[in-house]
């Protein structure tokens, strides 16, 4: 279906072909696997072609497989009389752009490609769901084994559990305690003591990523701390409720910000983002995003409040948008859990 969608983009944009390199997440969506070096070219007519290293074992019924050689690209372009080729511009190295321009003109089709790749296939949804289930399982292990003295011990535990579950990390886990929890992309090794503890990680299962955050409390929270946690939880619940096919991304962001009311100035990032072969992909669910959310998209919803030098709270889930509403793929409990 995506090849068909790409061909429609080519016709609409008046270009002859599209090239996607192997380090672009769209390559995985098209081909169904990752390779270290190569690219795929889709033309208006005929079978798409995957160019791979002679060292790769690669077969396909959908794609022609061509071994990478210096003359392979030039010959392909010349044989098919390709004069204009589309690229996903923000993800193409300048050196590659220069190489392509020796043989044909380039046109960016980055925005048009988002619509082709936004919705996930049935198999991709299955793998995303499995990644979330495994993430839930690791969260359960964290609670069961919780006796970590410093943040890095918990980071290492998550990485080991990820390997034990047959996965790789979606990104380097974030474990932020105390005042460190007020920094969204925190990296450090504080002693874990009384206060909020943000744990943000994901696993990659068969090429698809999860990205889930829970905020725990070490010790006994104050009335104010409980209030801030429940405010974030309420904002997340309201934003998830509003997700549906056809809604505009910035409207979801607005719902989360409205729910945070007078504390809104302490919400310093977007409400969420797309999720798939990489952790952050389209759509961006932010205050300026006019992207339409559609059935088949998987997105995160992750409002947070951050009080510099004091504490932070963030809650994040992975959600599939369906024709009839949503399905939350990450199921680990969200009520405030106290540890220690």
Return the structural class. Answer: alpha+beta
Query: How many strands appear in the DSSP assignment?
Result: 20
pLDDT averaged over residues: 94
The CATH architecture classification of the largest domain is Alpha-Beta Complex
Helix and strand element order:
HEHEEEHEHEHHHEEEEEEHHEEEEEEEE
Set down the secondary structure blueprint.
Blueprint: H1 2-13, E1 17-21, H2 25-31, E2 38-43, E3 49-52, E4 64-67, H3 72-79, E5 84-87, H4 94-101, E6 105-108, H5 110-117, H6 122-144, H7 151-164, E7 168-169, E8 174-177, E9 195-201, E10 203-205, E11 208-209, E12 212-218, H8 223-242, H9 249-259, E13 272-274, E14 281-285, E15 298-301, E16 304-307, E17 311-314, E18 317-322, E19 325-328, E20 338-339
Parallel strand pairs: 1-5, 3-4, 5-6, 12-20
Antiparallel strand pairs: 1-2, 2-3, 7-10, 8-9, 9-12, 10-11, 13-14, 15-18, 16-17, 18-19
Task: Explain what you see.
By secondary structure, this protein is α+β, with helices and mostly antiparallel strands. It has 2 domains: 2-117, Creatine Amidinohydrolase, Chain A, domain 1; 122-339, Alpha-Beta Complex (Creatine Amidinohydrolase). It contains 9 helices and 20 strands. β5 (84-87), α4 (94-101) and β6 form a beta-alpha-beta unit. α1 (2-13) runs antiparallel to α5, α6 (122-144) packs across α7 (151-164) and α8 packs antiparallel against α9 (249-259). It is elongated.
